[in-house]
Design a protein that fits this description.
110 residues, alpha+beta, 28% strand, globular
Amino acid sequence: MLQGRSGAVCTCPPLLLHGEYDTYMETQIKKTTDLSLAAYLSVAGVPFEGGELHPNNKNQVVFTFRDELGNYDDLTQSYFARKPVKMRVLSYVDELRNFKSMTHSLCKKG
């Protein structure tokens, strides 16, 4: 698992995995395979826990986040609803590049 920094109900795009409850930290763990959403969540301040290859698809990465503030679901819904947000564009682009690089690195190893 690589370390770095950031599932709504959606009938279309990528696979969104359910949240798991972490009893040690009393914080929900959330997972997504959506690269753009992962970058968005990271820039929005949702702590990124790591990435790993999807168990059923070795060409896809599952990104794990810790929902410490309880805003993961709201941010995800805003993302899919395409609601305007204040965000530094270059920060988003940098995070997108970081997550893309992680994806290529993990898929190459897998």
